[in-house]
Cytochrome P450 family 7 subfamily B member 1
Amino acid sequence: TQGHWITGVRPGEPPLIKGWLPYFGVAFNLQKDPLGYMKFLQTKHGDIFTILLGGNYITFILDPFQYPLVMKNHKQLSFDIFSRKLSEKAFSIKTSMRNEDLAHDLHVAYQLLQGRSLDILLENMLQDLKQMFEPELLKTTNWNTAQMLTFCRSIIFESFLLAGDKEKIISELKDDLFKYDDKFTYLISDIPIELLGNVKALQKKLINSLTSENLAKTQEKSEIVQRRQEILEQYLVQDLEIGAHHFGFLWASVTNTIPAMFWAMYYLLRHPEAVEALRDEIDCLLQSTGQKKGSGFSIHLTREQLDSLVCLESIILEVLRLHSYSSSIRFVQEDFTLSSENGNYCLRKGDLIALFPPVLHGDPEIFEAPEVNKFYKIVNDGNRS
């Protein structure tokens, strides 16, 4: 990819935005306002362009009609190569990257996030939340205040990781993980991890916290975590490597869940009518299933019952539309031409190609007043429209 800097744009290649800072490119513009900067580049250069970002040249495709060309082209565009590089650098996962059988067995284990296994996971999650909240509510006489993001982080961590010496373990792990997550953008770049301040030390500490020995201190492990542990032990993976796998799994779980929870709560607190609609929906569900709210009453909700909560689903979907900045990234394995209705674009071996759906989610031609959270527009008389 160094050839871009020397040769510039070749005939047939997308526009190249290198920024004013060598190597880092447009990293600071993108970090400051990802969606706004992407829209600016789209207005100036069109739906396909290449940027320099932390030593990587990334071609962004913003036209949703071109997404299938990327997602289905496995021969030239590889997700595995990108994910392996990221897993090794960000989480220090090495063994499974070189063992296809191990990688396959770990992938099969994700079936434990479906069907009956998902039902059990949900039931356990509800019980964990009850175990956390009920004692506090029974003994509390006054309101306590805290920042909402801090509250969301505490709830997610305590429900994800019930431990014997709970407070100390969770507090340290939580603080370290979010210090690490703050630097995650730089981990995607080609900047050596050793040059990112205390990131390498945090990585080692987090991995050590989640080794088999330390994970045994938790009160329970979900079926999928237990199965992943068994697979890794079956392949004689070293304990630190097992900790690295658990670290990656935990990071992916909480760093996606917490922002969604935070923004859902934020919009609920800002819109009393949404709270009222959601409470009415939950009350109707409890009444229809013969359940009551209050101290001494246990509430049980199945996955099917949660799926029937249209208002809740709509609130979450709007939050994801407005605040999810996820991308789908592929590694270009060989020079090739991406053919589309709008023209042909030459891509270089070693570059990355990315889809960025948030631009679509903020398109006024698709969503009227796209910057406004309108959970009710997905709901029509209590049914999905």
About this structure: The longest strand covers residues 48-53. The mean pLDDT is 86.
